[in-house]
Amino acid sequence: MLDWDDLKYFLAMAEQGSLSAAARKLNVSQPTLSRRLTALEENVGAEIFSRTRTGLEMTALGEQMMNHARHMQDDVHAIERLITGHDSSLQGSVVISCTEAIGSLWLVDKLIGFRKQYPGITVDVKVDNAVSDLLRREADIALRMFRPVQNDLICKRTVSMAYGYYAHKDYLAEHGMPKTMSDMKKYDFILPHDEILAYTSTEHRKSIGAPKGAAFRSNNLVALSAAVKAGYGIGAYSCLAAANDPDLVRLFDDYVVFSSDIWLVSHTELRRSARIRAMYDYLGDLLQDNAAAFAGAA
């Protein structure tokens, strides 16, 4: 008889294409996942995957199984959402999915007030730059930098997260303070990869022309921020994160390099849960109360 957990592992391997990637997604060890796959194939009596140098390739049987397993997974998640949506207790956990820029640098510190108000609820912050699937219960609530399009999700735009030009005070002591925007071309720059700008406002996505050169580049906002703090040069930095750092100097006062709207998202059924509704409302109020800090105007 098939075990649903084995099918869940099977789906992760099919979607990720390798044991290592599936293990990371499921938060289990690779040997454990390998044993579960072997047990499943012994139970089925045939190979589901072909092992190759590049990863796993599904057999014809695996392809057929995947379609049915996905339907089963969707049904299980629908039942879970239905049950959770009728939970009126303020006990249990609430999983919040957010990016490193918000989760690691701001949210953890701010949610201590929620814990004091609701001591029976476990705060579970899932810091991940990948988008969590709320329909599959990978998270209960998400803070996203784009508006979702799925019909089963509810969302509201909360605040705009602004980035200004910053540099470490030691870098400016060595190279001097730029007095005009045209002066910036003479300085070392910390630049993001293009995909980071995909979720930013075109209204504030400005260019200063060709700088002296890129001293550092990354596709990760936290890495870019770390480069500014390390003194690589001048770069865009979250005004929210820089506000309490005495080593960082903001250039050109209220100039905004780019900004990104923060959307608060949940599933329609999950918001009927008392604990998820409590967190959703708390986050909405928390973000609005800190709107000026996110915009760099505090």
Automatic annotation (TrEMBL):
GO terms for molecular function: DNA-binding transcription factor activity; sequence-specific DNA binding. One of its GO terms (biological process) is DNA-templated transcription. This is Transcriptional regulator, LysR family. InterPro entries: LysR-type_TF_proteobact-type, LysR_HTH_N, LysR_subst-bd, WH-like_DNA-bd_sf, WH_DNA-bd_sf. The lineage of its organism: Bacteria, Pseudomonadati, Pseudomonadota, Alphaproteobacteria, Kordiimonadales. PROSITE patterns: HTH_LYSR. Residues 2-59 form the HTH lysR-type domain. Belongs to the LysR transcriptional regulatory family. Keywords: DNA-binding, Transcription, Transcription regulation. Pfam families: HTH_1, LysR_substrate.
